[in-house]
Amino acid sequence: MSEKVHAFRCMTCGLVSYPKHAVCPKCRGETFEPTEIAGEGAVLTYTDVYALAVDYETRYLRLAIVELDGGMRVTGQLLDEHPKIGTRVRTVVGVVREPAGKPIYGLQFVPA
Amino acid sequence: MRPVYVIGAGMTRFGRSEWPLVDLAAAASLAALHHADLGKIPVNAVVVANMGAGRINRQTAIASALVDRLSLWPAAAEAVENGPASGASAVKVGYQAIASGMADVVLVTGVEMMRAVDGLEATDFVASLSHPEAEYIYGVTLPSLAGLFARLFMERYGVERRHLALVAIKNHDNAMKNPYAHIHQPVTMEGILTSPEAVVNNPPVAEPLHMFDCCPVSDGAAALVLASQDIAAKLGAPRVLVAGIGQATDTHAVHERQDPTDLKAVRLASAAAFDRAGLKPSDIDVAELHDAFTILEIAESEAAGFFKVGQAHKAVERGETKLTGKLPINPSGGLKAKGHPVGATGVAQLVELAWQLRGEAGERQIAKAKTAYACNFGGFGNNVVATVLRKEER
C-alpha cells in the first residue's frame, strides 16, 4: 500500500480529478498521470461519526471534506480538536484504517 | 410503450423477522398476489430487489428461490441489486417488461434481512456502497455521509436541529397509524431535543445527526403486482397507473459534486418522472421520500420540486407535510419509523402509495389522493429512481 495518495491529471485537458475515472469527466480523455495530493485548503464540512464501520476501536471518528487550494476536494480524517467549517488545514498521510493489523494509508488533515 | 398498472400491493411488518429470507419474500409476495386476485392469469416474470443476501444471508440467486417457493415456474426471474435504490429499480425492470410487451403480469418483490447480522456488520455492509479508495478506507459509513451533508446543508440554509426533530416527530406519529411500521413509538420535542434527558435519549450518531435522525436497521419485504392495461381491465382492478419513472446518477464520491448540497440525481430523476407523467410537482397529492436521515426528507422535497431550495424546513415548521397538510410526506412513517430493509424500501414506498390511491390506507388515508410521488435514493444520492403514480377514473 502506497504512503502517498494520488489524484489524476488528464493528459488531454489538464483537469485534476479524484478519485480515479477511466474517462476524464471534462474532456473524455483517457490518459492520466498520477499527481500526489498534498497541500493546504479549507474544511468544507465535517462530522463526528459514532456509527463506525468495522476495523475501528475508537469511540468516534472525525471525518471531513476539505476543499484544497486550486479547487479539488478530498475526503479524509480531520485531526483537529476544535473543528469548524472554513478552518485552514494541510494534508498529511497516515494510517486511516487497519483491517486485520494491515495498515492502510490515507489522507488526514491537520491545522495549517 | 404500453401503459402499466399496479394491480396488487402487499408487505410484511418491518422490524425483526422470525422467518428466513425467502419465507419473508414469499409472505409479501402472497399478500400482493392475493390483493391482485389474478385467478388463472399467469405471472410471467418475477423481479426481486435485494442488496445484501449474498453477503449477509449467504444466499444468492434469490429470485429463482422465490419463484420456486411460490410455484410460479416457468416465470422469468431475476434479482436487481442497485444499493438502497434496488426497490424502485426492480419496479422499473418490471415496468419495462410490461411496457415493451415482453410480459403481461410481473411480480416485483423487495426483501432484506439486515438483522441476521449485528449492527456493526449491518453498518459495514451498507458502507461498502461508498467509494472504496476515496471514502470507505477512511471509515466512511452512510451516517457519516449524511452527517457531512447535514452540516453543510444546515449551515447554508439555516436549518436547525429542531427542524430535523419535527420531521422525526411527524414520521413517528404517522407510523403509529401504520400497522406495518417497524417502530410504534411517539416522540416529542422535549424527549429528543429540548429536555435534559434528550442528551441521553438521543445520542449523536454522526454530528449534527442524532439517533432520532436516523432510520432503524430492519428486516422486511414488500411486493407489487404490475399488469398491462388488458389484464387490469379484465380484473376490474382500481386503475393505479405507473405514470412516469425517472432515474439519474451522480458522482460516486460525494466530495466530487460541484455543490455537495445539491441532490442533482434527485432533481434530474424527478424531472424525468414528472415529464413522462405529464404532471408537475404541484399536482402531487402525497409523497414518500427516502428519509434514511431526517435531513434527506427536507433536501429531497426541495430537489424533487415541491419546495424552493432552502424553504422546505419552513414548510415542515408550518405543518404542510403532516397528514393534514398541503402535501403529506411519508404518511407510512417513512424509512425513519416504518423502517428501512434496504432492498425492500423502494417497493414499500410504492406499496404505501398504491394503497393511498386505492383508498386503502386506513387511519393514515389522505382524502381523495389521486397522484403520488416516490423518491428512492440509492448510494448517497448517486443513483436515484423517482416514480409517479396516478389514479385513473373509470
User: Quick one: how many beta strands of chain A?
Assistant: 8
Low-confidence regions of chain A: none
CATH superfamily of the domain at 4-118 and 217-235 in chain B: Thiolase/Chalcone synthase
Most extensive chain interface and residues per partner: A-B, 33 and 38 residues
* Multimerization status: heterodimer
Q: Work out the helix count of chain B.
A: 15
State the end-to-end distance of chain A.
Answer: 26 Å
- CATH domain topology of the domain at 4-118 and 217-235 in chain B: Peroxisomal Thiolase, Chain A, domain 1
Walk me through what this model shows.
The complex is a heterodimer of chains A (112) and B (394). Chain A is mainly beta. Chain A has 2 domains: 6-35, no CATH class; 38-111, OB fold (Dihydrolipoamide Acetyltransferase, E2P) (Beta Barrel). Chain A is built from no helices and 8 strands. Chain A has strands at residues 6-10, 16-17, 32-36, 40-49, 61-68, 73-78, 88-97, 104-111. In chain A, the strands form 2 sheets. Chain A has a 5-stranded mixed barrel. In chain A, strands 2-1-3 form a 3-stranded antiparallel beta sheet, with no helix packed on it. In chain A, a hairpin with a 5-residue loop joins β1 (6-10) and β2. Chain A is globular, with a radius of gyration of 15 Å. The mean pLDDT of chain A is 95. Chain B has 394 residues and is α/β, with parallel strands linked by helices. Chain B has a domain at 4-118 and 217-235: Thiolase/Chalcone synthase (Peroxisomal Thiolase, Chain A, domain 1, 3-Layer(aba) Sandwich), CATH 3.40.47. Chain B is built from 15 helices and 11 strands. Chain B has a 9-stranded mixed beta sheet, sandwiched between helices. A two-stranded antiparallel ribbon of chain B has the order 5-6. In chain B, α1 (21-36) crosses α3 (62-69) and α4 (86-99) packs across α15. The longest helix of chain B is centred in the last third of the chain and has 17 residues, at 342-358. The A-B interface holds A 17-20, 44-56, 60-61, 63-65, 73-77, 85, 96-97, 104, 106-107 and B 120-121, 123-124, 127, 131, 133-141, 143-144, 147-152, 155, 203-209, 214, 252-256, 260.
